[in-house]
Each structure stands twice: as C-alpha cells, then as structure tokens.
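Our consortium's second objective concerns turning raw sequence data into structural hypotheses that experimental partners can test. To show how far this objective has progressed, the report includes one record in full. It was chosen at random from the queue rather than selected for favorable results. The single chain below, 181 residues long, was entered without modification.
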Amino acid sequence: MAVITTLETERLVLRPLGPADLDALAELHGEESFWWYGLRRAMTRPETADFLARVMAEYEGPDPSLHAVVERSSGAVVGWAGLSVPHFLPEVLPAVEVGWRLGEAFRGRGYATEAGAEALRWGFTDLGLDQILSIFEPENVASGRVMDHLRFGPGTATVHPRRGVPLSVRSLTAAAWRTGR
C-alpha cells in the first residue's frame, strides 16, 4: 500500500512529485546551494530525472516518500520536503526521517519549518509513527535551526558511511511532539 497524500498548510501545498515536475526540479537541482550539503555541487538534469524516478517509484512501496513543496500564492514548485526512510544510514534503521530542500529564492521565509511541521503532523497523527528523525551535516546551520524550531532533541554524532562527512542524527518522539503542540 502506497503511503502518499497531499498535505496543505496556510502557505504551501505538499503533493506527490510527478513527471510534469522535471523542469522545475531540474532548475532547482541546478542550483549549487540546493545540493551543497549532500553533493557539494549542483545536480544535472539526467541526475534530477533519476532522482524523480526514484521518488515516484517509492510511492508504490509501503514507506512514505517526499512531496513537492508548492507555494500557494504563485503555484511554483519551490523545493521538496517530507518523510522518507534514510536507507543511506543503516545504523539508524528502521526509521523514518523528515527532510527538506528549497530553492535559494524561497529560503528565509519559514517554508522549511512549515513543510517540516506538516510532515511531522502527518507522520505522528495519520501514519502513527512513534519517532521521526532528522539527519543533517552540522555545518548546515540553517537546517539545524529548522530542527530547533520543530523541537527536535540534541543530535547524536555519526559519519556518512560513503562520503565520510560528519552527520548529526536528531529525533523527535510522538509524545514530545504532542506535548509541545
């Protein structure tokens, strides 16, 4: 059973990514800063097409996957966010993480926090998850601040198994999320 739905906030619509999103994603992924934490470079259009195909394939499986983040006022795809299984970090599995990436022009508006908060609500209420992780490179101060706003606990240090870069794994339990609402 696929675990995907459309989620809505005051300013955003989080909806499944689809083939029609390739152009918008290729433009966003073409920004070096979009993929700096992760690749240290922009993604090519073929890499973006592969990314999109992987996300769409995940919609057919049992686990949650990412959403396009669409700005209500303009209808523009401004990035992606949502829940996914962090297969790249086997030491934390089984787990679900929340994550986000936004185009440079759309940062600093609170969209990452808003999208992350809605993904957490979906995960804890609709999917019944007990805990959600958020994983980031500690150098990515902006993502750390979003995690602070979302009330994630302090991180546990680890290292990316393939890239060798430091990572911090932060967690939020359903009980802590409910208490802070």
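The partners drew two points from this record. The mean pLDDT is 95. The chain has one domain: 7-180. Both points have been shared with the crystallography group to help prioritize constructs.
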